[in-house]
Write a structure and sequence with these properties.
The chain is an alpha+beta fold. It contains six helices and 32 strands.
Length: 424
C-alpha cells in the first residue's frame, strides 16, 4: 500500500513539475512576444536594469532575478577586458587577471529609474590601480530567444547617433501633452499647440507617420520629455505611448517626436510637410532673470510653463521648481491667498486658511491644472470637509520682483469644491 502511494506521489509530482515548467515557459514566451513588439526593444533590447533585480557579482559571474521569471546569469570573463585601467567589452578579454574589488552598484536617476553598474579597480598599463565603472545596460541585453548575453554598445550607440535633432528640438522648449493628443510647447518664444492625431497613426502597437492617423483612439498614457542624447550631446524631444496591437495588447514604445512633427517658421507641422528654417529674431520681450518671463504670455501662464514639481509643505507653503537651465525652488505662502469659509476653500487676501485646514496636497485635473486639496474645518468646529480649489490663474510670476505671487481679485468658475474632475 505504501509503495502504491509513493508511485502515485511520484506521478503527481512529475505532472506538477511539467505543469509548472510549462507555465513558466508560457510566461517567458508571452514576455518575449511583448518585448519583441516594443519598438525600443526591437532596436536594442537593452532593458537589463529595468526588469532585473537582486543583481550580484561573484567570481566573475553576474547573477540576477529578471521579471520574476527566474534567475539569469552570465560569465563576464567572456565579455570584458581591462584596457589601460578601463573596463571594456572584448570577447574573452580576461579582465579578471588585472582587476579586483569588483562590486555591483545600483544607481538611481533623477526620473526615479535605476540602472546597475559594475565597479572595479583595474591596473593601467603602468601598473597603477584605477577605479573604473561600466553601466550594465551598455553591456548586457536579452536576445530574441530571451537569453542574457553580452555585447558592446555599438548598435545601441548607432541608433541614438541616428536620432538627428531637428528644428522642433532646437527651437521648442517646455513640451507637454494635454487632453491625450494635444502637444504644447514654447517654440521660438511663442506658445503653440498642435493636434498630434493629424500626423500620427498606430500600426500594430507602434507609432508611425500617418496623415490624419488618429493614434489617440487606440493609444493611452502618452507623454513627452526632453532627453539629452549622450552620443550627440544634443537634446531630443521624445514621445512615449502605450498602443494597442492587433491582439488588443498595449505595447510600450519611445520615439523621437521629430519623426512625426517639426517646427517650420512659426508653426508646428507634420514631418512630411515642407520644412522651412524658423525666422531668427531678436526678441526683447523674453526676460531671463532667475525666473524666466515671456511677455507674450500671461503671468499665470509663465508660472505654468516655467515651474514644475509643484508641492505643498506645512499645509500653506507652496513650493515650485522654476527656471530654464538653472532650476531653483521658489516659495509662496498660500495664507495670503486663501481662506476657509465653512469648510470650503475660497480666494481671499490674507485669508489664513491653514489655521483651520489640514492634510493639504497638490493634485491635477484632467487638463493638467494644479488643484489644492485640503480637509477644512466647518463653522461648528466638529466636522471637516474635503475641499478643492484650482490654482489656475491664481499663482503668477511677478516679472519686476522676480518672485511668485498670487492673485486674489479675479473671479473664476473653478473657485468652488464642485465641478473639478481630478485624475483618477
Amino acid at each position: 500500500m505504501i509503495r502504491n502511494n509513493n508511485v502515485i506521489l511520484l506521478i503527481y509530482l512529475s505532472f506538477f513539475s511539467l505543469f509548472l515548467s510549462k507555465k513558466i515557459s508560457n510566461k517567458i514566451t508571452m514576455y518575449k512576444n511583448e518585448l519583441n513588439k516594443s519598438s525600443i526593444a526591437q532596436i536594442n533590447k537593452r532593458i537589463f536594469s529595468s526588469i532585473c533585480n537582486n543583481v550580484s557579482f561573484k567570481t566573475e559571474i553576474i547573477q540576477a532575478n529578471c521579471n520574476n521569471m527566474g534567475t539569469f546569469s552570465i560569465d563576464l570573463k567572456k565579455c570584458l577586458a581591462n584596457i589601460d585601467g578601463k573596463l571594456t567589452y572584448k570577447v574573452n578579454g580576461g579582465f579578471e587577471n588585472s582587476c579586483s574589488k569588483c562590486q555591483i552598484k545600483e544607481i538611481s536617476n533623477p526620473d526615479k529609474t535605476k540602472f546597475y553598474s559594475l565597479s572595479c579597480t583595474c591596473q593601467n598599463k603602468n601598473g597603477v590601480p584605477n577605479q573604473t565603472e561600466l553601466n550594465l545596460n551598455d553591456l548586457l541585453y536579452f536576445n530574441n530567444n530571451f537569453n542574457l548575453i553580452c555585447d558592446d554598445a555599438s548598435n545601441f550607440k548607432a541608433y541614438y547617433e541616428n536620432i538627428i535633432p531637428k528644428y522642433l528640438d532646437e527651437y521648442c522648449e517646455f513640451p507637454k501633452i494635454e487632453n491625450k493628443v494635444i502637444f504644447l510647447a514654447v517654440c521660438n518664444n511663442s506658445l503653440l499647440d498642435f493636434d498630434l492625431n493629424s500626423c500620427i497613426g498606430n500600426f500594430n502597437g507602434e507609432l508611425a507617420l500617418s496623415e490624419n492617423g488618429k493614434f489617440g483612439a487606440s493609444c493611452r498614457d502618452c507623454y513627452v520629455n526632453t532627453k539629452k542624447n549622450d552620443y550627440t550631446s544634443k537634446k531630443n524631444i521624445m514621445i512615449t505611448c502605450y498602443c494597442k496591437d492587433t491582439s488588443q495588447n498595449y505595447i510600450s514604445g519611445e520615439y523621437p517626436l521629430n519623426r512625426f512633427i517639426d517646427f517650420s517658421q512659426d508653426q508646428i507641422v507634420c514631418a512630411n510637410h515642407k520644412i522651412l528654417k524658423p525666422k531668427i529674431e531678436v526678441v526683447e520681450n523674453f526676460v531671463v532673470g532667475k525666473l524666466p518671463y515671456n511677455r507674450n504670455l500671461s503671468a499665470s501662464d509663465n508660472f505654468m510653463i516655467s515651474c514644475k514639481n509643484i508641492r505643498v509643505q506645512k499645509n500653506n507653503k507652496l513650493i515650485a521648481s522654476c527656471g530654464l537651465k538653472d532650476i531653483d525652488d521658489y516659495e509662496i505662502d498660500l495664507d495670503v491667498c486663501l481662506s476657509n469659509i465653512d469648510g470650503v476653500l475660497k480666494v481671499a487676501k490674507n485669508g489664513l486658511f491653514s489655521k483651520t485646514c489640514k492634510d493639504c496636497k497638490i493634485k491635477f485635473d484632467n487638463e493638467e491644472n494644479y488643484i489644492l486639496n485640503c480637509s477644512c474645518q466647518k463653522i461648528n468646529k466638529t466636522l471637516w470637509n474635503n475641499t478643492f480649489i484650482s490654482l489656475k490663474e491664481r499663482i503668477i510670476i511677478n516679472e519686476n520682483k522676480n518672485l511668485l505671487e498670487c492673485l486674489t481679485n479675479v473671479k473664476l468658475p473653478e473657485d468652488s469644491s464642485n465641478g473639478i474632475c481630478l485624475k483618477s
